[in-house]
Amino acid sequence: MAPRRLPTALLLLTLLTGCAGEEGREAPSGPGSVQAGTTPAPLSPSADPTDTAWVQLMIPMDTGAVALLDLAAHRALGPRLRSWAAGLRAAQTSELAALRGLRDRMGLPGTDVHEGHDMPGMVTAHDLAGARAAEGTAFDRLLVTLIHEHLEHSMRVSRSEIAAGGGAAAREQARALVTARGEQLAGLTALRDRDH
């Protein structure tokens, strides 16, 4: 079977952010990957393809991060990490609501076009299973690694949206996300520095 092709706008975002093969992750392949002949989710006639790709990527990225941060409330060993994770969870939940609202205003479907994909910054079902199995400092290390990757890559994707997106509302949301990510990454760095 021929390899599937990513929708053009998503491919642009992926290439701009250098997602493929970075940090030990590979471009999606196998079950759940987008393959040739796949019909992308229908777009609203007014939806810009880059905006669409960004929104449809950011929602599952944030959804996975929130699921991981839910675990941190009960599994994180370090009290500072637990407190920081709770604050980040609240911020990500609010951001997710804004992204879903934007998706709805753009007339996009609520389906997850990235279900089953293993991409940098995406907390996958496999990652969540590993987090549920980890305890103590092993959980804390995994949480920090996965969340750092999520914050870093979602910021890169959002910078690409700012540069290439066609809709003012999507670009504005992307700018807010980039600002938030800078603060969140600084907080995580400070937390790690205090613990070392």
TrEMBL record:
InterPro entries: DUF305_CopM-like, Ferritin-like. Residues 1-20 form the signal peptide. Residues 51-190 form the DUF305 domain. The lineage of its organism: Bacteria, Bacillati, Actinomycetota, Actinomycetes, Kitasatosporales. Residues 22-49 are annotated as: Disordered. The keyword Protease does not apply. This is DUF305 domain-containing protein. It comes from the Bacteria. Keywords: Signal. The keyword Cell membrane does not apply. Pfam families: DUF305 (PF03713).
